[in-house]
Every structure is written in structure tokens, then in C-alpha cells.
Design goal:
Layout lengths: L3 H5 L8 E2 L5 H14 L6 E7 L2 E7 L1 E4 L2 H4 L20 E5 L2 H6 L2 H15 L3 E7 L6 H14 L3 E5 L6 H16 L7 E5 L4 H15 L1 H5 L3 E4 L1
Parallel strand pairs: 4-5, 5-6, 6-7, 7-8, 8-9
Antiparallel strand pairs: 1-3, 2-3, 2-9
Length: about 220
């Protein structure tokens, strides 16, 4: 029986909470516990499958809405420039401006993304893609290319329903795109909105099939709690 103190422990910045040897029921329970307690923490928790042995780590993330691109939201701002040693914020995550992408010139969107990357400085830049709102694989392919070439460190995929054939096809598309662009060593995938271990294991298996075990072992594949 797992000690109840384990459930009460909150991961501090980049502190690892080893889950090696836990069975699936305990892992799922811990994942749910981290997800439920996230609102009580000023941190984002990730679950990664390092060498097929899952563990949690946490970090502070600065969220930026699509209002950043239009200037319509005064709160949609990047964090102030800080020294490279500052660990108060580790990642900046920006919602991809899907509506603006569909109405603006493609090179204007690309220039906005490049400028965003430059302003992020030493922070890790995650671009969040609303996978279920993207109209087609063609649109997803084009959006992902823009993000990758502009310098995104991670693509965060927001899933709002159980994994199905269409979503698997889109995940395969993105993984093959990373492989084809030779950026799999510098760009990762983050999945949010998933709560079941079988789905996470399925995505992990898909990633290994296309990008290899090393890519997964290097924590390039993460699940946001």
C-alpha cells in the first residue's frame, strides 16, 4: 500500500517524483491527484515516460492568450526580460491564433511567430494548438510547419475528447513532420486534456514507432497534468 504522504507531496520546480514500480491503478490515481491539486500550486505538472517508467516533474509556466497577437488583451503579455539564471518562470505557452491565421497573410503570421520567439529569449516557447478546432490535416500540417520553422520548442496539443482514429492520424502527421524536418532533437510534443493511462501509453507507443525510444526517453514527449 502506498504511503498517503506521497499523495500530499507537491513537486517543487524540476523536482522528480519517481513512480517506478507503481501499478497502473496507483499511477492513474496519482495523475488524477496532481491534476486536481494543480489549482493549488503555482506550477504546471508534467508526466513523462522516461524509458517506459513514468514520473512527474513540475515547473512554472507563463500562459499567453491569442490576444497577444492582436493587442486586444492588455493581460496577454510576455514575462519581463529576466536573467538567464532566473528560474521563476521556465516556459512561456502561447495559444496559436487560429482565427488570425485564417484571415491574415501566411507570412505575416510567420513573422509574428518569429518575433514571439525572439522576445521569449531564454524561456522555452510552447505553442498550443487546439487540435479539435483545426479543420483538416492540410491546415494542421501548415500550422505546424510555421510553428516549427519559427522556432517553437514544443507544440502543445489540447485534446478535449478520447483519442480516436482522426486524432491518431493527426498525431502521426505531426510526429512524421518532426522527423522529416530533422527537428526531433529540438522540438517536442506536449499533450494536455488526457486523464487515462491507456491513452497516454498509446500516444507514447505511436511516438516510439515514428521517432524512436531515444526521443521519448529524452522527455520530448510530455503529458500536462
Amino acid at each position: 500500500m502506498m504511503n498517503s504522504n506521497v499523495y500530499q507531496k507537491k513537486a517543487s520546480d524540476f523536482q522528480l517524483l519517481s513512480l517506478q514500480g507503481r501499478d497502473k491503478e496507483c499511477l492513474t490515481s496519482l495523475f488524477s491527484e496532481h491534476k486536481a491539486s494543480q489549482q493549488l500550486q503555482d506550477a504546471t505538472c508534467y508526466l513523462v515516460f522516461n524509458q517506459q517508467k513514468p514520473f512527474f516533474y513540475s515547473l512554472k509556466k507563463h500562459l499567453v492568450s491569442t490576444g497577444y497577437f492582436s493587442g486586444s488583451d492588455s493581460e496577454a503579455m510576455l514575462p519581463h526580460a529576466a536573467a538567464a539564471s532566473d528560474s521563476a518562470i521556465a516556459e512561456v505557452e502561447v495559444d496559436f491564433p487560429l482565427a488570425l491565421y485564417r484571415s491574415a497573410l501566411r507570412h505575416d503570421i510567420f513573422n509574428m511567430l518569429v518575433s514571439l520567439k525572439e522576445q521569449c529569449g531564454h524561456y522555452t516557447l510552447n505553442l498550443r494548438l487546439p487540435l479539435d478546432e483545426i479543420a483538416s490535416e492540410y491546415e494542421l500540417n501548415d500550422i505546424a510547419k510555421l510553428c516549427i520553422v519559427a522556432g517553437a520548442d514544443n507544440l502543445t496539443l489540447s485534446l478535449t475528447r478520447s483519442l480516436d482514429g482522426q486524432q491518431e492520424a493527426r498525431i502521426n502527421l505531426l510526429a512524421n513532420l518532426l522527423k522529416r524536418f530533422f527537428v526531433s532533437d529540438s522540438c517536442g510534443l506536449i499533450f494536455s486534456g488526457l486523464t487515462t493511462l491507456p491513452v497516454m501509453q498509446r500516444i507514447s507507443s505511436l511516438a516510439i514507432e515514428i521517432l524512436g525510444e531515444d526521443w521519448v526517453d529524452n522527455a520530448s514527449l510530455k503529458f500536462e497534468c
